[in-house]
Design brief:
about 5% strand; mainly alpha; globular; 4-stranded mixed sheet; about 75% helix
């Protein structure tokens, strides 16, 4: 490995550990301030936050360390060597992907169990049985990872055919996939994990239907999803476009909030659709994909040229380069998070404004938000650096302030 590459890698991991230290210090200082400002906040909220931060720090390190070790130990090269055996690119990619994702799954499994099962039971946030957790985890692995193995050969085919322009060709291929997933996910993927039941004929459904008519999107479907078997927290969302659009309310939301509060939350989700946030998200995803693939092309080519065969990889079209592409993708995704989350927070503010205009119920908007945070053991605000890097929504303090002071005509 070239000295320049060794220094770059070392500096990055030093930066990463420094970033984690700064965030943790900022978060702990912030929590001490919150204790003074909010003396009635439960100790569980602070303890849950501290445990969640530990998980975040470990996961962030593993996000880069695991693919890096796949490369430096030549494990990736050995897997490719084992599965290739004069097989076609498709079969080689499929077998490599299965082995690679199984290893990744097993390495991350203890932390996934601790964060998504143990911690949530420890703090009373989950109703999920261990058997149900295993079911959801395995389904997620099959849908998100194993299915992806069937398509691993595609980028490497483009890299082989067009070493300099593959990133642009692949970008054009990703565009219809992004749009396709927006259409298909509500009908095909979501029901794999939970049961969706129409509530259009219920009293609440009729109230939401009136709201949809008022917003001019009366053809949207209204569903309840049985999230109570997984969690005690609450949520709602609107997904799909054209005839696939639907409002989905978690049953925990319906069961734990007043009807007026549910209507207020629904108005917020309608705001996302009316304001074109789904289409804007698709547009930004496409732009981000093109940019990231270009940066991956530049950076991975540079890394490979300076590796001097250390990874056992000489060409970018080698299937064994998957951890390299993943490592670089994670790097640029990490750097881009402040931008993507700023856009997300801006859209949330727009949806909050629309919620007040459509629902015309300021008190319910405030009380619903306070209950959502209380039931999920959320803090009124994170540290500034954590907010900038990771928060997709404004803080509770910001949203309550907005609800109270936003002018209504």
């Amino acid at each position: 490995m070239d000295r320049k590459l060794r220094v770059t890698v070392s500096l990055f991991f030093v930066f990463l550990l420094g970033f984690i230290a700064i965030v943790l210090a900022s978060e702990y200082i912030n929590m001490e301030k919150i204790k003074v400002e909010y003396p009635d906040l439960s100790q569980d909220a602070y303890n849950f936050r501290k445990d969640s931060l530990m998980v975040w720090a470990i996961r962030l390190v593993l996000q880069f360390l695991i693919p890096f070790l796949f490369l430096t130990t030549r494990l990736s090269y050995r897997i490719r060597y084992f599965v290739e055996n004069n097989r076609s690119l498709f079969i080689t990619g499929l077998l490599y992907g299965i082995i690679f994702f199984i290893i990744m799954f097993l390495v991350n499994l203890p932390l996934d169990y601790y964060s998504s099962f143990y911690l949530r039971h420890k703090y009373g946030l989950s109703n999920q049985t261990l058997l149900r957790w295993v079911e959801v985890t395995l389904k997620g692995f099959v849908v998100n990872d194993l299915v992806l193995s069937f398509f691993i050969f595609i980028p490497f085919y483009f890299i082989y055919r067009s070493p300099r322009m593959w990133w642009l060709q692949l970008s054009f291929l990703v565009i219809p996939i992004i749009i396709f997933m927006v259409f298909v996910s509500p009908f095909v993927i979501d029901p794999i994990f939970n049961k969706y039941t129409s509530i259009e004929d219920d009293r609440l459904g009729q109230e939401i239907t009136n709201l949809l008519h008022k917003a001019g999107i009366q053809d949207a479907k209204i569903y309840k999803v049985d999230k109570s078997k997984d969690t005690k927290t609450m949520n709602a969302y609107m997904t799909g476009i054209f005839h696939s659009k639907r409002i989905v309310l978690w049953d925990t939301t319906i069961d734990n909030l007043e009807e007026s509060e549910v209507i207020s939350i629904t108005a917020h989700e309608i705001g996302h659709y009316v304001k074109g946030h789904i289409w804007k998200s698709i547009f930004f995803s496409i732009l981000g994909t093109i940019l990231i693939l270009f940066l991956i092309y530049i950076t991975s080519t540079w890394i490979l040229s300076l590796s001097n065969g250390t990874f056992g990889i000489r060409k970018m079209y080698d299937i064994a380069a998957i951890p390299l592409l993943l490592l670089v993708f994670n790097f640029y995704s990490f750097l881009g998070m402040p931008i993507t989350n700023y856009i997300s927070r801006y859209m949330e503010v727009e949806a909050d404004a629309y919620e007040l205009a459509l629902g015309e119920d300021r008190p319910s908007a405030i009380s619903a938000m306070e209950k959502l945070y209380k039931e999920s053991l959320g803090l009124p605000r994170p540290s500034n650096i954590f907010k900038i890097w990771y928060h997709t929504h404004p803080t509770l303090e910001e949203r309550i302030e907005f609800y109270r002071n936003y002018p209504l005509d």
